[in-house]
């Protein structure tokens, strides 16, 4: 008698691939849900914007130029983009942006220094920075050792060159200069006149100022007030002093 063996029934194996796929989808959905909750919460927003080192730009101007604002997305802020935007301002020489979670952005600003001042027709006093930018003088006050620029056209390229020249000269060498006016000639388109607090009148050129300023200070320290020329050659002529007797004789 022959016996017939029935095939064994295979046990159902768990569908590992399908379960892993479902798990991955659930994890993605859970992560997405957490991300939505996080980015909608106040912890992901900008809560503090601290501008440090700015004297010549208002917070409103800096905020507008930087593109950041209170309540904006903290993680959407690119420090590099903010720095590049702020450097477009003619008042700012250097800037660094730091982000501190949660929500704090610190902007450290280095501005171009003031090298002179200018009084506009309406009586508004402006500081002239080494970049050539003119900014209103606010509560920071003025530095008395800086010269006043008079009769300068705002579009005159020599004005910006003068500011650069002044910025490259140590303060102690320019502290006696009280006023600078343009005085161009065909030979010297960048010729200027300087008036000092010690009552000297000086004729020179912007392109020569840095190299000639030491001679100027030597004359001021050793001679009586007079006319100093510092162009191709240097010269000094004292102002003629009229005595009281001569005044009486002329009368």
Automatic annotation (TrEMBL):
| Localization annotation | Cell membrane; Membrane
Which residues belong to any copy of the POTRA domain?
Answer: 41-112
InterPro entries, A to Z: DivIB, FtsQ_DivIB, POTRA, POTRA_FtsQ_type
Its placement in the membrane is given as: Single-pass type II membrane protein
- Which keywords has UniProt assigned to this entry? Cell cycle, Cell division, Cell membrane, Membrane, Transmembrane, Transmembrane helix
Q: Which GO terms describe its biological process?
A: cell division
Q: What is its main location?
A: membrane
Keyword Cell cycle among record annotations: yes
UniProt keyword annotation of Transmembrane helix present: yes
Q: Which family does it belong to?
A: Belongs to the FtsQ/DivIB family. DivIB subfamily.
What is this protein for, i.e. what is its function?
A: Cell division protein that may be involved in stabilizing or promoting the assembly of the division complex.
Q: What is this protein called?
A: Cell division protein DivIB
Gene transcribed to yield this protein: divIB
């Amino acid at each position: 008698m022959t016996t017939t063996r029935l095939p064994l029934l295979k046990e159902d194996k768990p569908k590992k691939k399908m379960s892993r796929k479902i798990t991955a989808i659930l994890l993605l959905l859970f992560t997405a849900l957490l991300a939505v909750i996080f980015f909608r919460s106040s912890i992901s927003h900008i809560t503090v914007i601290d501008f440090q080192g700015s004297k010549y730009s208002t917070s409103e101007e800096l905020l507008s130029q930087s593109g950041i604002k209170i309540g904006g997305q903290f993680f959407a802020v690119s420090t590099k983009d903010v720095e590049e935007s702020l450097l477009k301002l003619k008042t700012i020489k250097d800037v660094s942006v730091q982000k501190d979670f949660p929500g704090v952005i610190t902007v450290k600003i280095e501005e171009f220094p003031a090298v002179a001042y200018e009084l506009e027709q309406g009586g508004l006093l402006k500081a002239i920075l080494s970049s050539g930018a003119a900014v209103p003088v606010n509560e920071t006050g003025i530095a008395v050792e800086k010269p006043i620029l008079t009769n300068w056209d705002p579009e005159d390229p020599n004005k910006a060159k003068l500011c650069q020249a002044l910025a490259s000269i140590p303060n102690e060498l320019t502290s006696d200069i009280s006023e600078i006016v343009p005085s161009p000639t065909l030979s010297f388109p960048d010729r200027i006149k300087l008036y000092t607090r010690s009552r000297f009148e000086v004729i020179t050129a912007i392109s020569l100022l840095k190299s000639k300023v030491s001679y100027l200070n030597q004359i001021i320290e050793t001679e009586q007030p007079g006319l100093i020329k510092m162009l191709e050659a240097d010269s000094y002529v004292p102002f003629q002093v009229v005595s009281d007797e001569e005044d009486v004789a002329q009368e």
